[in-house]
Amino acid sequence: MSRTDRIAEPWGTRTPYGPGETWPARVDTYLEDGVTADDVDRWVQSATILHSNGDGLDIAVKDGRMVGVRGRVEDRVNHGRLGPKDLYGWQANASPDRLTRPLVRKDGELVEASWDEAMGLMVANAQRLLAEQGPSAIGFYTTGQLFLEEYYTMGLIAHGGIGTNHVDGNTRLCTATAAAALKESFGCDGQPGSYTDVDHADVIALWGHNMAETQTVLWTRVLDRLAGPNPPQVLCVDPRETPVARAATVHLAPRPGTNVALMNGLLHLVIANGWYDEAYVEAHAVGFDELRERLQDYPPERVSTICDVPVEQLHEAARLIGTAERLLSSVLQGFYQANQATAAAVQVNNLHIIRGMLGKPGCGLLQMNGQPSAQNTRECGADGDLAAFRNWSNDAHIQDLARVWNLDPMQIPHYSPPTHAMQMMRYVEDGSIRMMWVQATNPAVSLPELRRIRSILSQERLFLVVQDIFLSETAQLADVVLPAATWGEKTGTFTNVDRTVHLSEKAVDPPGEARPDLDIFIDFAHRMGLSDKDGDPLVKWHDPESAFEAWKECTRGRPCDYTGLSYDKLRGGSGIQWPCNEENPDGTERIYADGKFWAQPEYCESYGRDLVTGAPLSPVEYKALNPTGKAVIKACEYIPPHEIPSEDFPLQLMTGRTLYHFHTRTKTGRAPQLQAAAPDVWVEMSSHDADLFGLAEGDLAQIATARGSVEAKVRVCGIRPGVVFLPFHYGYWDTEGGHEPDDHGRAANELTVTEWDACSKQPIFKTAAASVRKVRDADGPAPAPTTTGSAPVTGGVPPTRGGPDALSDEDLTIVPEGLR
Amino acid sequence: MKLGLALRELHRSENDLAHELLTVADRHKVDHEIFYIGRDIAAWSQHHVTEIATIARDYGEDLDPEPQGEPALMEKVWERTSDVLGRDSAPELLLLRDLRTVYMKASGVSVDWELLAQGAQGAKQGELLEVTKRCHPQTLRQVRWANGKLKETATQILVS
Known about the structure:
A: alpha/beta; 7-stranded mixed β-sheet; 6-stranded antiparallel β-sheet; B: mainly alpha; Ferritin
């Protein structure tokens, strides 16, 4: 057992291993000061909630309080490890400023109320609006933080009960392109890869994915491979010099907004060199000829000019991915939140299809998510899709869903694609959505162009309900605030990026009158009198386990088949990957083995969209394109970003996250070690640009775009010249302004542009034209971590340390049986 | 042979479609997807205008390879109006009307391309046929876009 400062060493101690070997265990534990493992009354099973990795953990409970966490050694995802956010983030649950009673707005002020009064107001408003306008007046804006049972129930209430098409939420900002890209290429959502592909890969390609900071434990697995015999080679595509870039064999730092040109250039070289599997393509894919023809326009010289990447580097990268024997790819926000998001992510799919690298150990494709239960919003129909990957434009699927829910098919809206989050905001803006129910997310900080968003959300005519655990910036604008229970205070399941389902059990009681989100939804449904076509209650379950059982029936025969799972099966041991059913009772490690897909016209989730215009394909068009359900290779031309640098705004602004925080710091800002590691906003720029604009480490700068401005201290780092980066975590709840800027802006989204990918509808956060100017000289270094993508290039910046309060245990002596 | 005539008509209808798309994009700037995608696919029509003018020389037609410019000042005023009217749902009806116009015009252009392709095949004009093969699919995408946007927006506009 050793003690490690996991703020200073976010990935902990190395446990090297070789290709095909089992990743050694390392059990990470953090208990509050003065508590030892012997003092703990109970260890309660759960998984990590502050990212999408889904690491199994146990919550330590003493005297009815949470006192710490410990990684689950038997879990397939983490083999006992935890990341810094997991080790310290749980402390936020016990913050004194938790919401403990409902609030309602009276005479302009939010005042405490009873549950009856708050729910009564919601029901009265909903029924009035249904009578006046119908379901189109009501929107549900959800999150990536709830549990599966809650999403499914909410989706049923919204789609089946209210009958509205307006159901989406924060996952639109994080995972929408992952889902869209998988639907385009494979006709259906569903993650092809598995985390265990790290154990086998000889090349790992990270496309706009700073895995070291977003999925720290998965990156730990990569680091352990890199430290072992026959390590994999790493390709990094990122304009920033991230920890991934520093570990990479080849690092490409393209000009922001040019990903499709880059991918086309790499695919051009892969095909020109004959590094593709002709037999696989012939047998299992359609569209190869169109791709080859399109790629003729992207020779390396032209791509080099568009992307500003040297030709030699393009050749090196193409050789890496073209000659890999077991290629693992992972894609995230550098692609998803950028210009031509879906088209770029689809080109990574194309690479794996033409190389036949799917469904085999080490040949993994991970279209990533950012949030812990983003995968469940996609499965359960809480993000604009229909439950269990049913196809909104396939009448047979709607009839089947109506059968499961015992409703008339007409009750389920399916006349057009479901309304996406940005369009919902537009409908609130034009006054046609008049009630919006926001759950566990904070659009007043997370959406682009905040001045616009604040003005939309604070309209008098909007009835805004916010269900959360703290009085977030968004909650401060609400008409009704519902206090919710959170992770550790309620039971449910959630599913990570690689389809691993975990059970998370209740460890302690929620504070005050706070209630589990599931209870709130069921209560609302009953108070609304929502019923099925026989007049029985629409929601036929009463607790998490009965909700899970109902969900299982909804998934029967669908790709995300949960019928082989149960709470009992998920208790103890490891998480389990869907599909889990009679044929696969232990779950399924990799899908799409043997070139079999879920893309048959009658079965697939989506008929696809035009990658440039976003127009949906009709069933007839899809059947003509892909009659037997092969993988679909889709080519796309490069289209430059709409907002390009100008004389007034000469730089390109990207926003993103840091390792120590999650979203708008609702929890991580209330965990002392995490908050201290990255206490305030900063701006990253290259030394070239710092010289150009007369700035140095720690200087206070104003960063402006056509939408607004923020002030932040300068971190001079290894980012690509011409690009500046702002972390998006810093809003106003812990400032004088409350929900808006006091004297100057702090939230990165003051600056971002209201624009989205036409195919996935994911907003673009990586290409805004910006200016920078000095406000005043430094009085010390920027408040940016030194351990991460914000590592300084200048001397004199003290290293990020957590000190004695951040010492965690690492036990490398445990050798569990049966670890995969 | 009347291929020159067909090219002249197509040159006119593509110019008209590009102009319509740019006008609609500007008029609905608060509907961001209409604004950005409208402008992107207007560029396709503008490119077609150049292609048509180039090949038309072989058929004795002197057509302007430069597409018509951006919408004029008065139309720019709409853009401003759009920002102001963004808070009202009545102008949304205008969006349906505008998308319907785009759909009709793009469909007309599509028919023109089809006629030209038939003529080119009949007259064994390989180069001309290649032009239609390059351009016509983009016209069909413009049609699908307008149709898709109509479907997507009609319900909310008509029921609220």
